[in-house]
């Protein structure tokens, strides 16, 4: 079998239209814009309206990624999320169907804030194995549905959003090549990041009201995230032979600007190469890295051929890092609001992709 590599060929994103600013939160919580911004780097976050689901955002982002890649369909659809539309069935098959891909295999993957690096690793392996020629990887979250609005520790952090990438079969050295990935977990400390109720251990309605909401031991998570992401990112960079001054863009999970700065400083990555999209969207969990990538590409912060290092830490506990070369793609941003995103129509898998903006 020839040496097969997974390459990124398209990226799309979707943010719900409603925005909650720090000043809005200060009207209902004992906080202020300055306090939130100084401690997190977040100025606002997008939130879904009642009736809009993770699947709605994911469908719109998936359609945008397909448009970016110039495709009508993929061989597999993978959704990474902590907030599926319902406990059963999975949300990915519904996204696939809404995008005109009935019959295509589709499944959800849950690794909380590490979801995208887990999903990218799995999608790349599916292609590299020779089993699939293309994968639509969607990261989508509606954390506003699992956050206690009266809890200052979490209500100020999280937002809703989705982003997706298309990966296709390629060869070594191809633009967009996923070079190397490493993952890890430590379930012995799963209590640090959790939604205690709603599963088989504490099913509703037996679970108390507070157990419905996302809970996090912030201080310990902060320190663990910094050290674990530093170590993971370093190991992946070393595996592909990159020194830190060769990395063009460092894209960590967008949890907290202080975490990103601390990891970058310990790795020796210049501040101007650390991508931070927190001010506009907050922490969007499994959607945060692809949203940051789409934003950075649209802003010219990353361009074709750049060495990009991704890293994340999240509930589970889970973590991971990925090294890739950025492709020549133009991000497509979708809107959400209608029950179904527009479904690409016509024969064949491919359409003419949008052209990257001239440098």
UniProtKB/TrEMBL annotation:
<keyword id="KW-0444">Lipid biosynthesis</keyword>
<comment type="function">
    <text>Catalyzes the condensation reaction of fatty acid synthesis by the addition to an acyl acceptor of two carbons from malonyl-ACP. Catalyzes the first condensation reaction which initiates fatty acid synthesis and may therefore play a role in governing the total rate of fatty acid production. Possesses both acetoacetyl-ACP synthase and acetyl transacylase activities. Its substrate specificity determines the biosynthesis of branched-chain and/or straight-chain of fatty acids.</text>
</comment>
<feature type="region of interest" description="Disordered">
    <location>
        <begin position="340"/>
        <end position="359"/>
    </location>
</feature>
<keyword id="KW-0808">Transferase</keyword>
<keyword id="KW-0963">Cytoplasm</keyword>
<comment type="subunit">
    <text>Homodimer.</text>
</comment>
<feature type="domain" description="Beta-ketoacyl-[acyl-carrier-protein] synthase III C-terminal">
    <location>
        <begin position="239"/>
        <end position="326"/>
    </location>
</feature>
<dbReference type="InterPro" id="IPR016039">
    <property type="entry name" value="Thiolase-like"/>
</dbReference>
<protein>
    <recommendedName>
        <fullName>Beta-ketoacyl-[acyl-carrier-protein] synthase III</fullName>
        <ecNumber>2.3.1.180</ecNumber>
    </recommendedName>
</protein>
<comment type="pathway">
    <text>Lipid metabolism; fatty acid biosynthesis.</text>
</comment>
<feature type="domain" description="Beta-ketoacyl-[acyl-carrier-protein] synthase III N-terminal">
    <location>
        <begin position="107"/>
        <end position="187"/>
    </location>
</feature>
<comment type="similarity">
    <text>Belongs to the thiolase-like superfamily. FabH family.</text>
</comment>
<keyword id="KW-0511">Multifunctional enzyme</keyword>
<feature type="active site">
    <location>
        <position position="283"/>
    </location>
</feature>
<dbReference type="InterPro" id="IPR013751">
    <property type="entry name" value="ACP_syn_III_N"/>
</dbReference>
<dbReference type="InterPro" id="IPR004655">
    <property type="entry name" value="FabH"/>
</dbReference>
<keyword id="KW-0275">Fatty acid biosynthesis</keyword>
<dbReference type="Pfam" id="PF08545">
    <property type="entry name" value="ACP_syn_III"/>
</dbReference>
<keyword id="KW-0443">Lipid metabolism</keyword>
<feature type="region of interest" description="ACP-binding">
    <location>
        <begin position="254"/>
        <end position="258"/>
    </location>
</feature>
<feature type="active site">
    <location>
        <position position="253"/>
    </location>
</feature>
<dbReference type="Pfam" id="PF08541">
    <property type="entry name" value="ACP_syn_III_C"/>
</dbReference>
<keyword id="KW-0276">Fatty acid metabolism</keyword>
<dbReference type="InterPro" id="IPR013747">
    <property type="entry name" value="ACP_syn_III_C"/>
</dbReference>
<keyword id="KW-0012">Acyltransferase</keyword>
<feature type="active site">
    <location>
        <position position="113"/>
    </location>
</feature>
């Amino acid at each position: 079998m020839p040496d097969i590599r997974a390459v990124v060929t398209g990226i799309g994103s979707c943010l719900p239209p409603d925005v909650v600013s720090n000043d809005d939160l200060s009207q209902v919580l004992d906080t202020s814009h300055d306090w939130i911004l100084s401690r997190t780097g977040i100025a606002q976050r997008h939130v879904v309206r009642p009736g809009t689901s993770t699947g709605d955002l994911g469908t719109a982002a998936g359609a945008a990624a397909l448009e970016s890649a110039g495709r009508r369909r993929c061989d597999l659809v993978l959704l990474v999320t902590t907030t599926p539309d319902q406990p059963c069935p999975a949300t990915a098959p519904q996204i696939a169907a809404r995008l005109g891909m009935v019959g295509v295999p589709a499944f959800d993957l849950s690794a909380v804030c590490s979801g995208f690096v887990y999903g990218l690793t799995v999608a790349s392996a599916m292609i590299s194995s020779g089993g699939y020629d293309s994968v639509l990887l969607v990261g989508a979250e509606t954390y506003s549905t699992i956050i206690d609005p009266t809890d200052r520790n979490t209500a100020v952090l999280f937002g809703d959003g989705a982003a997706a990438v298309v990966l296709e079969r390629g060869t070594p050295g191809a633009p967009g090549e996923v070079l190397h990935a490493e993952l890890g977990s430590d379930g012995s400390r799963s209590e640090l990041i959790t939604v205690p109720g709603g599963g088989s251990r504490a099913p509703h309605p037996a679970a108390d009201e507070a157990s419905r909401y996302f809970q996090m031991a912030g201080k310990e998570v902060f320190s663990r995230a910094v050290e674990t992401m530093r170590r993971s990112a370093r190991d992946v960079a070393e595996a592909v032979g990159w020194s830190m001054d060769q990395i063009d863009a460092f894209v960590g999970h967008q949890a907290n600007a202080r975490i990103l700065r601390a990891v970058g400083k310990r790795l020796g990555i210049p501040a101007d190469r650390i991508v931070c999209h927190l001010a506009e969207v907050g922490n969007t969990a499994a959607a945060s890295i692809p949203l940051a990538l789409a934003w950075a590409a649209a802003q010219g912060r990353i361009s074709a051929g750049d060495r990009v290092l991704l890293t994340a830490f999240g509930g589970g506990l889970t973590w991971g890092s990925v090294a890739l070369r950025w492709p020549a793609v133009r991000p497509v941003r979708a809107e959400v609001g209608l029950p179904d995103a527009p479904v690409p129509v016509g024969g064949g898998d491919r359409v003419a992709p949008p052209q990257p903006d001239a440098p």
